[in-house]
Design goal:
This protein is α/β, with parallel strands linked by helices. The chain contains twelve helices and 13 strands. It starts with a strand and ends in a 6-residue tail after the last helix.
Length: 366
């Protein structure tokens, strides 16, 4: 079986859930993959310029022989009702390419992000199984007319697809009333790229409380600053691109380091004494299952997190310490620093939460 994948991220971005799915699909089904990069599904915003400077050495340029990457042309007018007509002219060659590709063998279409292009394919490709993998509450990333349009497109897609994956419990609850075939497929990790876990405790007196990831609208600067003030003799190390900086001066024990490619980022995590996930509690994070959680746990790190999204359901797990506000931060860090990982527990965690285990459990392929 072949796969047409409408991705929410470019192929050249760092390897994420979409990349892991197509790798697994090809390995299991043996067919080729036509990967369609995303195009703008909202009006331009002033903040878009900040993303222009993302380091190019962090991207993935490897394209396997079984995969073809296509980038659709499109005007950034998708919230408008006429966007399908206007951009449809630009998509004529793409539709022909998809049609020729689907003639080669039995084909599945996977949608990683709602779009007019996805709706057009649903309308025109009869008899082909469609999967929608809802990885986020996509409308929450938009505002105004763009948000309304995205919500409408997503609901229409959910009502039409053959299979529906959701990455969090909140998304499962949201879509159960609309679609009877909802499968909870949480995020996971690539066991093959994970370094060995750390079992030795750092004996240094100055502990490293670390975070690796994008610092965006969801990042709770107030919580992080409170942490730095509560632990003035420790280092709060933040590694990743900063799209939303703090509003004022931060304590001197906060380190802001540039983004790293994935292998280097995993190695950097091994120097942490505690892994942090300091996200705000809002519509944006209510549906999030952070991959950082899986990587921290697989490396044997204790995790201190705010009680957002899927993390709020993990209060009883070993090594997880959830913060309910600014007042409990100091005590939680003290508890986390006492935690000692168990080798068998980590091995089992890696096996149970690998991407392969996630996708195999869906039964979407025979």
């Amino acid at each position: 079986m072949q796969l047409v994948y409408l991705s929410p991220v470019p192929w050249s971005s760092f390897s994420q859930r979409p990349h892991k799915f197509v790798d697994w699909f090809h390995e299991r089904a043996g067919g080729d993959v036509l990967w369609i990069d995303p195009y703008p599904t909202r009006f331009p915003a002033w903040g878009d310029w900040r993303r222009i400077g993302v380091r190019k050495d962090l991207v993935n340029y490897r394209i396997p022989h079984w995969l073809t990457v296509v980038r659709p042309q499109a005007f950034p007018i998708e919230p408008l009702p006429v966007s399908g007509l206007v951009n449809g002219v630009l998509w004529r060659d793409l539709f022909k390419l998809i049609e020729r590709f689907a003639l080669n063998a039995s084909t599945m279409v996977a949608i990683g992000k709602p779009s007019v292009l996805a709706l057009e394919m649903l309308k025109n490709m009869n008899g082909i199984p469609f999967l929608y993998d809802a990885m986020d509450n996509f409308p929450a990333f938009y505002s105004g007319i763009s948000r309304l349009a995205m919500a409408s497109r997503e609901k229409s897609i959910v009502q039409q697809v053959t299979h529906l994956f959701v990455s969090s419990t909140a998304l499962q609850k949201r879509w159960c009333a609309v679609c009877g075939n909802v499968q909870l497929v949480r995020n996971g990790l690539d066991v093959n790229v994970m370094p060995d876990p750390r079992f030795q405790v750092n004996k240094r007196s100055r502990k490293v409380l670390g975070y690796v990831g994008t610092i965006g609208l969801w990042f709770d600067w107030d919580w992080v600053i409170a942490l730095a003030r509560a632990r003035p003799n420790d280092t709060v190390r933040l590694i990743g691109p900063v799209f939303v900086p703090p509003s004022g001066q931060v304590p001197s024990n906060i380190e802001l380091l540039p983004p790293l490619e994935h292998a280097a980022a995993l190695q950097a995590m091994l120097d942490f004494d505690v892994g942090l996930i300091p996200f705000k509690l809002n519509d944006l994070t209510a549906s999030v299952d952070p991959i950082k959680y899986y990587e921290y746990r697989a490396l044997g790190l204790p995790v201190v997190s705010t009680a957002f999204g899927e993390m709020a359901l993990r209060a009883d797990e070993q090594g997880i310490f959830l913060s309910d506000g600014l007042q409990d931060i100091k005590d939680l860090i003290n508890e986390a620093l006492i935690y000692r990982p168990d080798a068998d527990e980590i091995r089992q965690f890696r096996a149970n939460n690998s991407w392969q285990a996630r996708f195999e459990a869906t039964g979407i392929l025979p």
